[in-house]
Structure formats: C-alpha cells, structure tokens
C-alpha cells in the first residue's frame, strides 16, 4: 500500500511539474506576442486572439490542478482582453497585459500565495468595459463579483458597474462563484436568479450560511418582484435587482441598502 501511495504522489508531482513547465512556455510565448504587438509586426487581432486562447487553456488546466491564483489571474486577463478593441491597442494596454502575465508567473513560481488572492486581484489593471476608459472614469477599489450565465445580461450589468467606477469579474457557475468569493473577497456579489445546478436563491442562502461569506453583501438579479414564489426562500437582507426598466433604480437602491459606495 505504501508503494502504491508513493507512486500516486510521484505521479501527482510529475503532472504538476508538467503543468508548471507548460504554463511557463505559454507565458514566454505571450511575452513574445506582446513584443510583436508593440513593434506592430503582428496583426492586433491575431495576437490578441492567441493570448486569449492561451489564457483559456491556462485557466482550465489550473482549475483542475489546484492552482487557484493562476486560475483567477488568467480568468481576469481573459476578461480584460475581451474588452479591448484592436484599434485601442496602445502601449498602456500592452503594459497591462504584461502586468497580468507577470502576476501569473509570480503565482506559478510561488512568489505569491493563494491566501493573498484578494490583494492581488485588486492590484490588477482595471477593465475597459463598454467603452468606459479607466482614464475617463474614477475607478474605485470596489470589487463586484457577478454570477450570471447569460453573456448579454452580464455585459449590461458590467457596463453599469463600469459607469459607476466599480471593478467587476463574472463567472457562470455557482460552484466557481463560491470559490471565487472565498478567495478574492469581493465587496459585493450580484447573483442571477437562474443558474445551472443551483438557483440564485440557493447560492444566496449558501453565502449567508457559511461563516467565511455570511457578511458578504449579496443581491439577486431577477425578472420577478417580491412575492413571487421563486423568491420565497431568499434571505430577507438580500435585495432584488429587477431586469428591465427598473434595473437602474433597483441597482442604485441595492448599492445604498448594502452600503456600497
């Protein structure tokens, strides 16, 4: 049995070492791409698409091999890249991409521990969601985690948050949301009422029940008003944000009620 246990441990070490080397190669490749984008020897669309593919690969591999900080930062870089227009790929944007790459490398090399994830993500470059340039909008240090499966809905909420100067990160799985909330400690979570596997009400109750997240401000995004049966088990302290014409007012009211400034 001992030999079997040692064999498994050695296999795990080999897989982790292979992952580390693979990600190092990807990061080296990304730095070459950044250099080529700076010198304009590579079309912007091609370079950005390749870096996005690489980050998706790193994120997926990292999530299966217990590399939480690598996974979180690569996810954030993927979101940052999705917001960049090819025509806006100035030197400052490339500096930001390099900063993400550096943070992934530091996490990979053990220079930053997963316990410091919250500090790391707040220091990452802010996204330019919906045309709101960080240089034109006063960026606050308020971090909002979105748990929204529908991409179109997520973009609407992200744009509203960007207009307020809030930083946002979006995940689509309720289970990923729990890990992200525990590790990155956002100031607020906005949860869609409809999710796969667990409902938004389920997730709001989970956050309220766990000691590590019970004080985390949560709001639920829904098509329904108070009194609808789907909201019967929603914790009373969780405000609702209704889709449609009431969205802006409900969002502002939720911020005020949860003391998000």
From TrEMBL:
Which taxonomic lineage does the organism of this UniProt entry have? unclassified sequences, metagenomes, ecological metagenomes
Q: Which PROSITE patterns match?
A: RESPONSE_REGULATORY
Q: Which GO terms describe its biological process?
A: phosphorelay signal transduction system
- The molecule here is called Response regulatory domain-containing protein
Annotated Response regulatory domain ranges read 143-261
């Amino acid at each position: 049995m001992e030999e079997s246990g040692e064999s498994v441990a050695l296999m795990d070490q080999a897989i982790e070492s292979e992952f580390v080397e693979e990600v190092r190669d990807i990061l080296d490749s990304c730095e070459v791409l950044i250099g080529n984008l700076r010198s304009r020897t590579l079309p912007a669309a091609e370079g950005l698409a390749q870096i996005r593919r690489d980050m998706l690969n790193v994120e997926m591999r990292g999530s299966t091999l217990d590399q939480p900080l690598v996974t979180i930062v690569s996810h954030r870089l993927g979101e940052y890249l999705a917001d960049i227009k090819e025509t806006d790929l100035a030197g400052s944007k490339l500096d930001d991409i390099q900063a993400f790459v550096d943070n992934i490398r530091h996490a990979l090399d053990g220079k930053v521990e997963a316990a410091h994830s919250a500090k790391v993500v707040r220091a990452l470059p802010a996204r330019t969601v919906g045309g709101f340039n960080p240089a034109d909008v006063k960026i606050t240090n308020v971090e909002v985690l979105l748990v929204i499966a529908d991409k179109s809905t997520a973009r609407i909420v992200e744009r509203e948050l960007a207009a307020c100067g809030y930083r946002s990160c979006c995940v689509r799985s309720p289970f990923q949301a729990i890990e992200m909330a525990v590790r990155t400690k956002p100031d607020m979570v906005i949860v869609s009422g409809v999710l796969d596997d667990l409902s938004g009400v389920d997730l709001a109750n989970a956050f309220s029940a766990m000691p590590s997240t019970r004080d985390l401000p949560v709001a639920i995004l829904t098509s329904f008003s108070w009194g609808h049966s789907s909201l019967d088990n929603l914790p009373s302290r969780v405000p609702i944000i209704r889709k449609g014409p009431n969205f802006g007012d409900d969002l502002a009211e939720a911020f005020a009620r949860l003391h998000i400034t």
